[in-house]
Write a structure and sequence with these properties.
mainly alpha, 2 domains, 10 helices
Length: 165
Amino acid sequence: MNSSLSNQDRNSLSQAKKKRKEYRKKLLHLKKKRPKQINDRFNSLHDDEFETMDCLKCANCCKTTSPIFRNVDINRLAKHLSMKVGSFTEKYLKLDEDNDYVLKSAPCSFLNEDNTCSVYDFRPLACREYPHTDRKNVLQIIDLTIKNTEVCPAVARIVGKIIKA
C-alpha cells in the first residue's frame, strides 16, 4: 500500500479490504431493492467526498493500478507523444487476461513526482472518469466499485457510508 497515504486514507483502504465480501453482498442486495435511490446516494456522496479529497496528495490509483486503454486513447497519447501507435503500445502497454490494453508497470509511467500527470489533457477515458462513483448508473459496475474500494480511499468511504445507511 502507498506509504504517502494519510492515516485516514490507509484506514479506509484497510477496512475495505477486510469487508470486501460484506460490501459486495450488501450492495447487490441494495441494487435489487432500491436501485434509483442507491445510484442517487452514490452521486451525492461522491460530490461530498471529493469536496475534501485531494487526489494529488494520494494518487494511489496511479501508483497501484492501470486504466484500460481503448484504441482512441492509445492513438491520442501516441500522437501527443509524437510516437507511432505501435511504438507507444510496445513501450507502455500489455494485454491483460481480458485482452484489454493496460500499463506494463505501476506506478503509471506518466505520473510525476508531485503526483500530477504528465499527459493529463490526453489521459485515457478510464482515468478521466475514475473512480466512477459519479456515474448515472453506478450499480452497473458494482464489481469494479468494490475493487476500487481497495484502491481509492474516497470510494472506500463512499461505499462504507452506503452500507451503513
